[in-house]
Every structure is written in C-alpha cells, then in structure tokens.
Amino acid sequence: MGSSVNLEDVPTVDLMTETLRRLKCSTKPDKRLILVGPPGSGKGTQSPLIKDEYCLCHLATGDMLRAAVAAKTPLGIKAKEAMDKGALVSDELVVGIIDEALKKPSCQKGFILDGFPRTVAQAEKLDEMLEKRGVKVDKVLNFAIDDTILEERITGRWVHPASGRSYHTKFAPPKAPGVDDVTGEPLIQRKDDTAAVLKSRLDAFHRQTEPVIDYYNKKNVVANLHAEKPPDAVSAEVHKVLS
C-alpha cells in the first residue's frame, strides 16, 4: 500500500476481509506459473480462478508496462523512450518490470505470468532473474487446443457494440440471426475475430511459442491441458496439476 492510502480510512469490513484473505493465503504453497496458449484458448477464464485459489498475483506484462510508463518509474521512463522511438521495449526492461512487481505483498505467494515469455530469449532472461531471487518457474500451463476448434470458437463471435453483449453463432446464437436480442440492432464481428486475422495470429503464436514450450519441456515443468473442454473441466485439470 502506497502512502496515498491511510489505513485509518479503510472500512473495517475491507480490512478484516483482507486480513482473513492473507491468513488463509499464508498456508498456501508458493507457486510461480506461466500460462501459454493461443488467443481464445481460455487462459483469460482460468487465470482469475487460479489467482484466487492460490493467492497469486496476475502479471500481464502489457498492462504492467503501461502502468510503469504512467507512473514514470525509472524503468517506465526507459520503456517510454523506446516506445517513442517506435522501438520494441527490450526483454531486460520487461523482466525488470516483472522483478519490481514481485516485491509487492500481493506477489508474496507467487505469480501467474500471461503473454510472457513469448520467446526463448525472454524465458532465459526470466529464469536468470528468478534464479537471483532463489526461485524458479514451478509450472507452465499449456492451453493446448486444435486450431480448427479455436477457429470455430472465435470466428463465431458477434457483438452488439453499444452494450458489449456477445453472441456465438453456434454456442449462444441471437434469437434472430445477426441482430441483438434486446435492441434489434445489427451485430458486428470484431476485426480480431475474423478468420484471416485469426490465422495470422495463430501462425505467429505457433512460430514464437512452440520453442518456448520446448524450452520448458526440457525442465519438466510443462503441463498440457485439454483446452477444448468446457471451462469447469479445464479448471479440474488445472487443480489436479497444481495440487
């Protein structure tokens, strides 16, 4: 908690809830997890559940970079310089920002990393940094799913832009094809959800990430999940792997 929050001003209920949460968390084993999977494989559904169950902090490197830039931290200033030049933020910088985040109380029990490392070089840098802290990655959860299933999942998504209501042509169709149930307005397909965009995202994912999975496979920390199953079945698999 930064100096901006005065504990005296925090409602008792919130304080007690947080205290109880920390007590419950103190008995949980530490875990450092990496979630790997293509867009639409269900990582976003599972990570909040894992985070709560094991009292981990969720590190989304994109958000962390933006936050560091906004907060003008020393690393954030460096990152902004790179971005302003149109350059990629270096792996060292991203790992540095993860390293900073790990000092927070919420990360005491470990973390979930999502969207990083994307390359073997990043995985090596991450391992070096963790080694200095005397810890290592415990498990890499690989949300393995067939591209054709993903294509059906993603290209079937249609949204009503004004309300954010989403539909799926196969799994949750609107009452009348192509229009919102409530307003009758036309539904749209997000740019990212079209077959062409998905194909290029999947190609990039396989190209970049397969080597990362191989890298962690050699360390015997990869658990392959059947990500095509329904969310509660995937949750059950995650639970088994992590217990």
TrEMBL record:
Transmembrane segments: none
Pfam families linked to this entry: ADK, ADK_lid
GO molecular function terms listed in the Swiss-Prot or TrEMBL record: AMP kinase activity; ATP binding
Source species, domain of life: Eukaryota
InterPro entries listed in its UniProt record: Adenyl_kin_sub, Adenylat/UMP-CMP_kin, Adenylat_kinase_CS, Adenylate_kinase_lid-dom, P-loop_NTPase
Keyword terms: Kinase, Nucleotide-binding, Transferase
Annotated EC: 2.7.4.3
Catalytic activity annotation: AMP + ATP = 2 ADP
Domain Adenylate kinase active site lid: 157-192
Protein purpose: Catalyzes the reversible transfer of the terminal phosphate group between ATP and AMP. Plays an important role in cellular energy homeostasis and in adenine nucleotide metabolism.
Assembly mode: Monomer.
PANTHER family the UniProt entry points to: NUCLEOTIDE KINASE
Family: Belongs to the adenylate kinase family.
Protein name, entry field: adenylate kinase
Source organism per UniProt: Daucus carota subsp. sativus
Source lineage: Eukaryota, Viridiplantae, Streptophyta, Embryophyta, Tracheophyta
